Structure formats: structure tokens, C-alpha cells
Amino acid sequence: MDFTFTEEQQAAVEAARAVFSGVAPDSVPSPALTPGAVAEDIDRRLWGELASSDLLGLTLSEEYGGAGLDPVALLLVLRESAKVLARVPLLESCAVAMAVERYGESGLAAELLPRAVRGELVLTAGANGRTGHDPAELAVTARPEGPGAAPSGSAPAGWVLDGVQSAVPWAQVADRIAVPAHTGEGRAVLVLVDPARQGVTLADQVSTSGERLAEVRLDGVRVEARELIDVPGAWEWLRDLLTTGTCALALGLGERVLAMTAEYTGKREQFGFPVATFQAVAVQAADRYIDLRAMEVTLWQAAWRISTGAGGPLPAAGDIAVAKIWASDGVRRIVQTAQHLHGGFGADTDYPLHRFHAWAKQIELSLGPAAAHEEALGDLLAAHPLA
After folding, report:
1. Each residue's pLDDT tens digit, 23-54
2. C-alpha neighbours within 13 Å on the C-beta side of residue 185
């Protein structure tokens, strides 16, 4: 079997590396020294460069100015972005754009996607619900109003939203927020909400990495019918893509941290020898390398299921759960070992390792920690007994 990436995917990686080569992880104040958010806005210069390099539309069709590649290309770029702690909503904006193209009305796609490709429009998603523990779609209700609101078979003229989504990334700078909700019949729907709409309130929150999040409260927010995506599976598909993208971020961050550790231990000497030559150090680094390889293979398995729709003994959600279990546990072990092998130098706020540790913790818990996905995997195994 051929596990190599296509020429187009590899070209996307090279373009991403060129853009990210000018990004410094220390470009904003340290989250360890800042009581609030490290910055008010995303890295607008980087966002513009990503748009100029056609990296914001990699996975959208040419009709909207994109390159027409599959989700694997986006995950490869996300992997590179995490190596420099890129402060841009690349995952959220691209994932929501893909969901709009795949499931939304053509008019909504034509309105939003070309602007998203050009970097003029920032998209994000509320995927954590009210507390981060319950399904996100249960935190918001969507009820129809206007002609067709009664169960007569005709489509409603609009919808009214009520509820809360917490820890929404980049919400303060987003132009649209993809909000999962549930209807009176219990269906999960996806709504594109303008944060400037009447009834929308944003309350500042701060992530472990020091980036701005927001609690998005919806009080009687009215949206047009075309802004609500009622296609079965739309929210679940977006959630799966966001989760897999988080795994790609974990892999890229882990690779960068292990490389930093190898460089440091190769130069740091004790008793006249580099500490990397000591067996205790080498064994710990080797264990973390094994973590990286497990994170990588489970990521691409999940990505393959999402990209191709291929079947398997379990639904694709099973492969995604396995990938997130390895990503969450693996990235945590990698940064902990890196801190240990760096000694006191790893806690120095003039050295970027502490930033990677903070980002790793945020990634570990985003879209559910390992324990949550272990529970989900157990439920899938119970519902789909393996022969």
C-alpha cells in the first residue's frame, strides 16, 4: 500500500512552511506573565499571508476560489502551524467553510466562501456546549417562527435561538460563528450566527494558552432560514473534522517540542558528556518518539475515514476517538518529559518551551480529553460488537 501524500498535498506543506518560517512563538507576551489574554486580536499579518498563499481555500472548490483538495491537506498545514504556535483560526475557519460548502445552501456558500478564501471573513465554531461535558448541540435550542412554523410541512421563514456556547475560540474577531443547536424534535442543526446580531452577547474568557475565548450567549436571536443548516449529519461531520484537526495540532506541537528537547540535551553537558548520551534521558526521549508515531498513524487513519467516507468495523467516529485519545495523552506526556529533560531551563519564560506546554494543555482538553473519548469509544464498541 502507498501511504505517501500526493504532490498537491506536499506542495501545500511547502507553502505552509514558507509562510510559517517567519513566525516566532514569542511574538506576544507570555501567558505565564499575563493576567488576561496575551493579545486582543489574531495575527492579522499571518492571516493575510495565508490568504495570499491560497492556504485558506485549500479544501474548497475552485468555484469559490479554492484548490479543491481533501481534508488531509488542511491537516498537514495545521500540523505545520502548531510548530510555531500560529495565532490564527485556521482550523475553525477552514472547517466551518468546508461544512458550509458541503451542507449549506448554495446562496449562503456563494456569500461567505469567496470572502473566507480571501481572508476577509473569519469563521469559528462553538463546539463545547455550556460546560464542555455535555453534547454541544444540547446547549442551544432552535425554534421555528413565521410562516411554516407550525407542523404543516412547509419550511419556516426563520428561527429563534436561545442558549449558551462556552469557550468559543476567536469569537470576538469572528464574522460568523457556527453554533450547533437542537430543535423541538431533537434534531441537531448548525446555525451561522453573526455575532453582531441583536441578542448575541460575548463574555471574555481566556484559554490555558492565553488566547481569547468567549462565552457566547444567545437570547432570542433571530436568524434567516438559509442561515440554518438542517441536513442530517452536518454538525456531526463538522465536530469530527474539528476533533481531527485538533489531533493534527497536537502532532505538530509534539514534533516541535521533541526536536527542541533533542537539540537541548545534545548540547547540555554533565560530567563532560552530553546528557542525551545518558541512558535515562535516551529512554525517555525514545518513549516520547513512540508516542509521536502512534499519534501520527491514528491521525491519518481518522483523516482517511473523513476524506474518503470509507467503511470499517466501527463508524468513523471510532477512529477519531482513538486519534484524540492518543493526541491528548501523547502531547501531555511529550511536554512533561520535555520540561523534565530541560531541567530549570524549561521553566524560563525567556525560552519558548513553557508556551508550548500551555498550548499543549489547551489542545489536550479541546473537543474532549482522552477520558471522554475513551468513554465514547466504549459506547461505539458496545453498539458495534467486533467479530
Report:
1. 999 999 999 999 999 999 999 999 999 999 99
2. 9
Kindly report each contact of residues 39-47 with a partner whose C-beta sits within 8 Å and lies 24 or more positions away, as own/partner. Answer: 39/87, 39/211, 39/212, 40/172, 40/212, 41/173, 42/87, 42/88, 42/89, 42/122, 42/170, 42/173, 43/86, 43/87, 43/88, 46/19, 46/20, 46/86, 46/87, 46/88, 47/88, 47/119, 47/122
Whole-number pLDDT of residue 148: 58
Question: Residue 272: its pLDDT value, please?
Answer: 81
Contacts of 13 (CB under 8 A, 6+ apart): 5, 76, 77, 80
Buried b (16+ CB within 10 A) or exposed e, 331-350: bbbbbebbbebbeeebeeee
Angle at Cα 137 formed by Cα 135 and Cα 140, nearest 5°?
A: 125
Q: How far apart are CA 84 and CA 93, in angstroms?
A: 19
> Which H helix or E strand runs over 165?
strand 158-169
Angle made by CA atoms 354, 330, 380, in degrees to the nearest 5: 140
Each residue's pLDDT tens digit, 101-115: 999 999 999 999 999
d(CA 30, CA 17): 24
CA–CA separation, 30 vs 358, rounded Å? 10
Reading the block at residue 162, the C-alpha cell is 436561545
pLDDT tens column, 343-370:
988 889 999 999 999 999 999 999 999 9
Cell 436561545 locates to 162
User: Cell 495540532 maps to which residue?
Assistant: 249
How far apart CA 321 and CA 244 sit, in angstroms, is 9
With beta carbons less than 8 A apart as the criterion, state whether 362 and 82 touch. Answer: no
The kind and range of the H/E element at 76 are helix 71-82
Beta pairing partners, 142: 161
Question: Which residues, including other chains, have CB under 8 Å from residue 196's CB and lie 6 or more apart?
Answer: none
| Backbone φ, ψ for residue 316 (5° rounding) | -55, -25
Contact 200, 184 (CB under 8 A): no
Concatenating the DSSP letter of every residue in 275-328 gives GGGSHHHHHHHHHHHHHHHHHHHHHHHHHHHHHH----SS-HHHHHHHHHHHHH
Cell of 380: 461505539
Of 113, 146, 143, which Cα lies nearest the Cα of 228? Answer: 143
